[in-house]
Amino acid sequence: MAIRTWGNARGAALRVMVSIASSSAFLLFGYDQGVFAGLIGGSAFKDTFNNPDTTTIGTVTAIYEIGCFLGAILTFYIGDKLGRKKAIWLGLLIMLVGTVLQTTAYGLAHMIVGRVVTGIGNGINTSTVPMYQAETTKARSRGRMISIEGWFITIGITISYWITYGTSFSHDAAIQWRTPIALQIAFGLVTAFMLFGLPESPRYLMAKDRREEALEVLALLEGADQQSEAVQSQFRSIQSALEFSRSAANGSAITWRDYFRGGKQQTFRRLALGYCIQMMQQLTGINAVIFYSAYLLENVLQLPRELSLIVGGCTGLTFFVFTFIPIIFIDKWGRRKPLMLGAAGQSIAMAVIAVCVKLSVQDGNKAAGTAGVIFVMVYIATYSGFAWVATPWLYPTEINELRFRNQGAALATSANWLWNFAVVKITPVGAQNLGWKFFLIFMVFNAAFVPIIYFLYPETAGKSLEQLETLFHHTTHAWKLTEKGTHGDDIDLPMGVESMSSDEEDGTKKRASHASISEANEKL
């Protein structure tokens, strides 16, 4: 049965549709991230939940990240069984259930359950969506496509800020905080509907030995005949890389020992790189700013609540504008340089924010408070403009082999949410008790990330996912792997590495074929 797409779309049109669906899922993610921050200070919200204290607010807010963490861990186990599309559908369904629970909450326990359930769904989606996008796009535009997803996170955050600002003038709980939460249902339904007319990931299909379907999807994404050279080239490349990976494990199923392997494949190192890039994203301090922007501005920089909400909305607009920049350059500049430049700039911005908070709070210097607000914007602009929004979601899908990609993406996403929880949980208490010194912690983290990225993180831009599987075959020094690729998914493998039949058992043939794959990827 032929695979049907919306309007029988093929080629670039189909890839754009995949990008729109993936981006809409991340718009929901962004909205969900931002909406609660604008609600927790509202009078109707406080009245409904009996004026919760700072610690309770921190718990209710941060418990969402625990749900997301659980969703990511769940994806680790079931993602490869469901496939990319079904996993996203499951995540959306769970998010819708959680949203209904939150919208109808009248007690803190009810709200906490709703936030955990919503988080589980979002954890599944944030583990799967970037992987689905990366596996259905070309090497030359992979960074741009996932940067668009990152941009849609900021669109969601911006929408949430201004909606909560608009509803804050009402004292009716149904309008002030229930309506903004309920709007997540609309975003989720749109994304779920769009997936019906999109194909499954061809690389997932290959991993499940559904080769005829994979070939058909590759042809649809390429906009060419199944027997065309471009389609056959990609098919052979994916097949060869997959069989090489399987042969390294002697064709056996994945065991826990496999996750700790070194050798040419460097499986453990790949998993660790993906995990740590997501951890570093959270330790930049970005979610301390996002989740508690209104709280920080009102209680630390001592702005009136209404003005704090307006400035919070402006931070969303800053995100929106500057996150567009990596869409233009990320595939030209690569992954390493923007991350290092961004980390350096963020460190400087955090240092200035700390000084401004000290002067405005301790010395009553209003000019310092204004400067602090400006440098909050500078920090967000630097974080957004230098690809820290998108690259941590992209990198784990690039660096991990196909056999471990689902697990690698899920593990990395679990790191994002675990450390997100830690940051969100400690921010109200840290800002209240440490004051300006709290921001120095993030200054130090950002400064440390510059050498970490330089020495440990290889460049992945411009290389096909199959080329990246042989990344560590010739050197394990990341600073020697700084060159961008030349869009290897558009170039055929040479003769001799086209494929290996599944019943080949001769070890000599396998070793020769594996060596040929490495040589082929050097030429790519």
From TrEMBL:
Residues 515-524 have a biased composition (Polar residues). Belongs to the major facilitator superfamily. Sugar transporter (TC 2.A.1.1) family. It comes from the Eukaryota. Keywords: Membrane, Transmembrane, Transmembrane helix, Transport. It is found in: Membrane. The chain crosses the membrane at residues 12-31, 57-78, 87-106, 112-134, 146-165, 177-198, 307-329, 341-361, 373-395, 438-457. One of its GO terms (molecular function) is carbohydrate:proton symporter activity. The keyword Amino-acid biosynthesis does not apply. Residues 495-524 are annotated as: Disordered. This is General substrate transporter. It is a multi-pass membrane protein. Residues 18-461 form the Major facilitator superfamily (MFS) profile domain. Its main location: membrane. One of its GO terms (cellular component) is membrane.
